[in-house]
């Protein structure tokens, strides 16, 4: 996939992903993210790899960056719905002392205070869209949750 194309929903895919992340991050006093073309390339390469492996769904294992994945029927998951799905894991997170959980890892990466950049890519196969977003600095570091995942209202 080339650079994210403009969308009828207002703005490019990149702008929409950044805005959706930043709206949720603001609720937790996390600084806004900026779009990274480098991370977009990494994410797109992995999204294409998943497609090329027959719609496999799994993490890249690249420990240099944080990574969130989402998949759904083609056309259903736009940037806003994708970030909302990840953010909605907040209902299972235990403030202020939560740590990593498979049920909340997407949420904690979205609002991780130490993260400053995001880049996302998408592939489509078998009627399914696969979204990959990569983050720098990566979130979900044991022992750092209290400082990086603030509750609503931002009181640690």
Concise overview:
With 156 residues, the chain is of the alpha+beta class. 32% of the residues lie in helices and 21% in strands.
The side-by-side strand order for the widest beta sheet comes to 3-5-6-4
Structural class: alpha+beta
Helix content: 25-40%
Distance between the termini: 40 Å
Write up this protein.
The protein has 156 residues and is of the alpha+beta class. The protein has helices at residues 13-26, 37-52, 79-87, 105-111, 145-148; strands spanning 6-7, 11-12, 34-35, 66-73, 117-125, 128-136. α1 (13-26) runs parallel beside α3. The chain is globular, with a radius of gyration of 15 Å. Mean pLDDT is 91; it is low at 1-9.
Map the helices and strands.
Elements: E1 6-7, E2 11-12, H1 13-26, E3 34-35, H2 37-52, E4 66-73, H3 79-87, H4 105-111, E5 117-125, E6 128-136, H5 145-148
Parallel strand pairs: 3-5
Antiparallel strand pairs: 1-2, 4-6, 5-6
Helix pairs in contact: 1-3
Notable traits:
156 residues, four-stranded mixed sheet, alpha+beta, two-stranded antiparallel ribbon, 6 strands
């Amino acid at each position: 996939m080339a650079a994210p194309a403009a969308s009828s929903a207002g703005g490019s895919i990149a702008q929409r992903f950044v805005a959706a992340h930043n709206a949720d991050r603001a609720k937790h006093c996390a600084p806004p993210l900026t779009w990274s073309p480098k991370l977009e390339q990494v994410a797109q390469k992995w999204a294409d790899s998943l497609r090329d492996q027959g719609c496999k769904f799994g993490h890249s294992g690249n420990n240099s960056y944080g990574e969130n994945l989402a998949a759904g029927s083609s056309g259903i998951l736009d940037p806003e719905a994708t970030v909302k799905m990840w953010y909605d894991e907040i209902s299972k997170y235990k403030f202020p002392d939560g740590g990593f959980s498979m049920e909340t890892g997407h949420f904690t990466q979205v609002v991780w205070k130490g993260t400053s950049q995001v880049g996302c890519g998408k592939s489509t196969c078998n009627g399914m869209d696969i979204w990959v977003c990569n983050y720098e600095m990566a979130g979900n570091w044991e022992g750092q949750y209290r400082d990086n995942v603030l509750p609503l209202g931002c009181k640690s």
